[in-house]
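Input chain follows. Return structure tokens only.
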Amino acid sequence: MNKLNAIGLDSEKSANLAGKLSELLANYSIFYQNVRGYHWNIKGQKFFELHLKFEELYNDLQLKIDEVAERILTLGHAPNHRYSDYAKSSAIVESSEVSDGMKAVADILNSFQTIITIQRELLLLSAEAGDEGTNALMSDYIRAQEKLVWMYSSFLGK
């Protein structure tokens, strides 16, 4: 018989989910700090528009970081909190000071592609584990982020 965790999920499958959520947490954390940098350093013609949009985005990312960490805890595991570990395991890399709005938006689109890909992998893992909580969270994130990808792409004229 399978060993179940506190919320009735298979412990081994929960551990796999927590590992993939930890990967997502690392990517979100680097993405968050990059967007903070874009917000702080943006210059030029679209300053007011992008400064505000980047602030909205990093506030949303901060909430998601907290929700992902709490989901790891709910599954019975401890979220990593060391930025040095995030930098090592994130597919999203730290950006240099970026003051060009178009470059910042292009970087954001690349980061969303990475994030959405990981979240789709989590949809598959969570469905296999019968983990509706993680599945619903990832589904909600993907739906909202796909709209943001469309909007940021439109900003770039793509």
